[in-house]
Amino acid sequence: MSLRFPRLALAAALACAGQAAHAALQPAADAPLARRSNSVCHHLADNSLDCTTENQFTILKPAGKDLLSRIDFTYSDTDSLEVLDGEVRQPNGRVVKLDKSQVETRAAPNPYAGVSRDKQTWIAFPELAVGSVVSYRVKRHMASPPLSRELLYRLDFDAEPTRNDSFRFELDSPRPLLWRGEKMDDFKIDASADGKRIVVEQKAPRYLNFTNEWNNSALRSWPRLSIATSDSPQSHFGVYAGRYNQILSAPLPPAAAAEMEAQRGKPAAEQVAAFMQHINGHYRYLNDQRLAERGLVPFTLAEIEQHGYGDCKDLATLLTAMLRASGIAAEPTLVFRGNDAQRPLLPGLGTVNHMIVRAVVNGKTEWLDPTNPFFAPDRIMPDLQDRTSYRIGVDGQVREENIPMQAATLTSRSERVETLRRDGSAAIAIRGEVSGWPLVQLAMQDRFQGPASSDQSLCRAVNKQPRECKVDRPATGFLQPARYAARIDSVDQRAVEKISGLYLYDPGLEHDWDGFASYLANGNQTDVYLGDAETTERAVTLRGARAIQPPFSCQASSRWYDLSLEQRKTPDGIRYQYQLTRKVRWLSHDEIASPEFIRFNEAARACAIQARQIIKL
């Protein structure tokens, strides 16, 4: 059983728009709310949990009224939640008690790609004002997930627009508890002599929130604590291994069996691609919890085929069965899906949110996700890289394994010819190919917005002011090829800028390096997500151009990037060769602010700026 510290689902949350003028830790003086919290939880013999929580909020700023306009609690229909009492104490001392009419329980909104029976209880407090003190007590019973025998409770103190003036959490259990923490210096943690009771208390008021950070950035480390009844993955997940292997021992249902027979004898990689295509074509990704609260337990193979849909554990189980029936080693594997995944402090249900398949194809490990509407062979998707996984073996053993980061590969190569005109325009001819994640992104835009939208995006990406742009490329589909070729022909009306009888050519290669310099100047604090490690290559020929500066080449290297740029004369103009390799998926704040990265960024920017030059026609 896994639980995370219950964070309020607050309506009317604050939104930020526009470019950051300055990014930094938000001062506590700007906090819109202050909170005092006390929770007492009892772990019961049946692995369920009873928790009573008291929260008191003081509204410090007008924005605090919006954050407290409605408080939502969403929970499974196998759980129960009772609002014991509540009140608003006004700045003048008047107390308004919470009325039953201000508490409502209803069906929770269905999640994306899912059908659930979850419930939602909300509280709407009246007469809120700056200085009002809002208090409530709730009691919640959380049933143990099916088959679960172990407890995992997580406390996460990540950034939020609430000043925490006091926090106390108490958990007792009939079984000994163990705990592991990270960055918990601001908290006192006491365990009883028998290990069956743990109390966590905040030492002093604390506030952690950020303003004006980049959209592609995130705080990836914060104070957190895990409390569990076991530190063994086998104890937490082994009970599911028996049920999975029981389901997998059944015969394949008719459609899956027919597909397996149709692929028999073909190379293993072709069979894998065919099975992924079969599941994508015949089943939709849908988490259906109407029939029962299944937790990590999938439907049977026959039920999955009968339904024609399934969630991650259903589709992964069916794919595992098809692979095994074809003689390909495969294991259902639990993982946390997302661009970033913290290493679990302790194992348990709260450390995973997704199931995939680990297969060995021609001696190489593949991490297969049948919930995606695409398949790129030999690639680990960005939301599965560099994280802990738990694979369920045919012997019933659960083995912890790290999914590696995808090594950098050549994902984009282009040959661009610009035939320059004296009015500053140019006829543009691009011949290029893409693979990996850029190709997946193109296929996704084709699927959800249509190829015409994708073609417009491509034309805008390669021209400053496109006209008569024509894109010639094959249709994208579920199976991503190793290389995907495309041609773009257009007229760029602003290929170069006229300056006193000369022309300025600017390919914009310094954009990323300017961005990191701005990050430091603005005081940004969070880590930056870059995407897959990759190499891109560009060759650009400016026909009809004569360079004023002599030919040059430059390089900049680091443990994060390698950059090389060369410019030389050709019989008909100027030619540029540009290559950039990104070696990492994330850049931490400490890395960006390090002297080593600053030196590299300055060298990379200086190199890229050399491509901006005055030319003659």
UniProtKB/TrEMBL annotation:
InterPro entries: DUF3857 (IPR024618), Papain-like_cys_pep_sf (IPR038765), Transglutaminase-like (IPR002931). Residues 1-23 form the signal peptide. The keyword Disulfide bond does not apply. Residues 45-183 form the DUF3857 domain. Residues 258-361 form the Transglutaminase-like domain. Gene3D superfamilies: 2.60.40.3140, 3.10.620.30. Keywords: Signal. This is Cysteine protease. The keyword Transport does not apply.
